Amino acid sequence: MINLNKAMKFLSVCLFTAAVGACATSGVVGESDPSGEKSELIEIQNKSLAKKVSIQNFKTRVVNDLLNVQVEIESQFSSTQEFQYKFSWFDATGFEVEGEANSWRTLILTGKETKTVQAVAPNPTAKKYRMVLREL
Amino acid sequence: MKNWIKPLVVVTVAALTLGGCATVKYGDAGAVESTTVDFGSTDLQGIASKMVDSLLTFPPIVDVTSKRRPVLFVEKIKNKTTEHIDTESITDTISTKLLRSGKFRFVDMTKAQALKKQIDFQQDSGMVDEAKAVGIGRQIGAEYMLYGNLSSIVKRDGSTKDVYYKFTLKLMHLESGILEWQDEKEIRKTKSKSMFGG
To answer: Is residue B13 part of a domain?
Structure first.
């Protein structure tokens, strides 16, 4: 249930992968929904990765004036997979909030497992967020 | 070809071949680092994020911080592992995030001596305008103390090494001695050495 006003709603989940053995990543960063009609905007940039995971049940709430996000990630494979994800935060005008403080986190999913990942905005100015998921 | 040129060419080629070329690159400070199983930057960032998110959204703390910005002081994190770990760096990251959330304020006890020295200078040296000198006895005392432990369990079996870290952070209300909040972050890292390659 997303109960934030439309101006605050924003989600872009980008799936991209890194070339095996290389340090560079390929992918495109998502954008906010320009119409403001949708609460979530999912951009799948890598179809191969999209077959391995399903991202669903986006939930947001405000706790202590801080935007709190929860995303459910489900493995579509029967074997264990390792991913990395990162949240970025933006203020109402689209400027990134505490950009350098965002780091990648590891997510390990066993076969067909579903896990939720959560994040809390760094301060009350953050009104929008973006989550990027990638595999190594 | 002169006599000395041939050996010079051979030595140069050998040096380049054997020595290779050193390259320096900047990397992403937020990238997942898994060079060894020892405590690393990803562990530090993961611990700080978990602790800050947990503290800022814990209902009793939300009640307090929604009305005012309590003053904290950071006591040392006790390193109970066998590794040399800069635990002050962990608490620095945690206090930075808490401070920048706008929900807490801090007093820095590591600078108490330097602060006293400066105030003494302003009050007693006769060199500072009395009207502009910092007053005595006007500091705000901390209301809460942040402290904790970092422990580890290390196990080895042949070529496999397993390290389990547990970081515990506590927030004590100084006046009552009550623990208002506490949380843990667990990290497991395993390194296996394969027969071939690394």
So the answer is: no
CATH for A6-135 is 2.60.40.3230
Cβ within 8 Å of B, A 33-92:
63-66, 68, 84, 86
Global confidence as pTM? 0.80
- Taking only the tens place, the pLDDT of each residue in A70-93 is 989 899 889 999 888 989 999 989
Candidate from B28, B100, B103 with C-beta closest to A64: B103
Q: How far is CA A93 from CA A8, A13, A89, A99, B45, in A?
A: 10, 20, 11, 15, 27
Nearest to A103 among B30, B62, B102 (CB): B30
What is the extent of the structural domain holding B148?
A: 37-109+142-192
Domain of B148: which CATH number?
A: 3.40.50.10610
**What is the 8-class DSSP label of residue B139?**
P
The tens digit of pLDDT for each residue in B10-54 reads 766 666 665 667 899 998 899 998 889 999 999 999 999 999 999
How far is the alpha carbon of B32 from chain A, nearest alpha carbon, in Å? 6
3-class DSSP state for residue A124?
A: coil
Compute φ and ψ for B126, nearest 5 degrees: 80, 5
Q: How many domains does chain B have?
A: 1
